[in-house]
Structure to design on (312 residues):
């Protein structure tokens, strides 16, 4: 499922685009936010189906080898362990996966060179070669091979990154999150299952409303919260504070003041972590210091109201 952290990142990106474009339409920008969230869920299914395409490529290659005029003994009796991998077969036959792919018109059919390249790279890995040489034929071993592929071969693949960018500009920076969702799905698969239990889009029914509300309230209160932050950055040259730093702090303040069910510590930890990846070097320490001061003042003024035990 799409995590709250990813939703926060999506909101930040939507706010950045909205504010930089000087758009007057919150509704249009909100639709773009929702579309970006939906596309992340699409990417989850697209990536889940990738290993199936590699197995199909491997089988087609074996079939082509059998059709040679002078096939070798190995050509006629190929090692079909990967092609017949039980976990890959379960994914390939999954109605929940295939129905979603069909409904969204998602496929890898236009990218045979990528599939060929990824399979060739997989073949060279030590864990794949060990898997193919092993005499064991078990669900456990099949699952380990597929999991290793998703954990080791994709996140830093430039070829894959180029193809994903071509398929959707909304998939920028989403690959890591989609791969986490795939590995969680794999961890829930059992040999007794007849169907892949895909993750729901959200953990809670409130998650989408949370993202939309956070976006709208941050945009509407941007100037007000900017002024609050400026009170604690007077010793800094405002022009030298990274725009994303400001945006992260303003969004964090919005969350602190507008979402009583989210603990203060959760909000602070989340935005500080986000700053490590989406802002300038050292920003997380700077943002941490400013937000700590703001929280202390807002608490003294009674402006942070949290409901539930242990939320302050």
């Amino acid at each position: 499922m799409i995590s709250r952290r990813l939703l926060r990142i999506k909101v930040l990106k939507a706010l950045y685009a909205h504010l930089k474009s000087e758009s007057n339409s919150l509704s249009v920008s909100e639709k773009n936010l929702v579309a970006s969230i939906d596309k992340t869920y699409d990417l989850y299914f697209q990536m889940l189906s990738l290993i199936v395409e590699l197995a199909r490529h491997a089988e087609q290659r074996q079939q082509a080898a059998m059709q040679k005029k002078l096939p070798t003994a190995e050509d006629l009796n190929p090692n079909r362990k990967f092609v017949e991998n039980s976990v890959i077969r379960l994914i390939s036959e999954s109605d929940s996966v295939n129905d979603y792919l069909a409904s969204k018109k998602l496929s890898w059919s236009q990218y045979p060179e990528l599939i060929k390249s990824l399979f060739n790279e997989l073949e060279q890995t030590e864990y794949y070669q060990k898997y193919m040489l092993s005499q064991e034929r078990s669900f456990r071993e099949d699952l380990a091979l597929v999991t290793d592929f998703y954990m080791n071969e994709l996140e830093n693949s430039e070829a894959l990154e180029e193809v994903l960018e071509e398929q959707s500009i909304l998939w920028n920076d989403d690959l890591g999150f989609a791969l986490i969702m795939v590995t969680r799905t794999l961890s829930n698969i059992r040999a007794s299952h007849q169907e892949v239990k895909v993750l729901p889009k959200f953990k809670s029914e409130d998650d989408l409303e949370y993202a939309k509300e956070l976006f709208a309230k941050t945009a509407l209160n941007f100037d007000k919260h900017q002024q609050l932050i400026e009170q604690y950055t007077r010793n800094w040259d405002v022009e030298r504070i990274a725009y994303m730093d400001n945006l992260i702090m303003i969004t964090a303040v919005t969350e602190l003041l507008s979402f009583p069910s989210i603990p203060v510590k959760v909000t602070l930890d989340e935005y500080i972590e986000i700053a490590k990846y989406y802002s300038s070097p050292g920003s997380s320490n700077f943002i941490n210091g400013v937000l700590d001061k703001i929280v202390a003042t807002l608490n003294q003024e009674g402006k942070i109201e949290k409901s539930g035990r242990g939320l302050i």
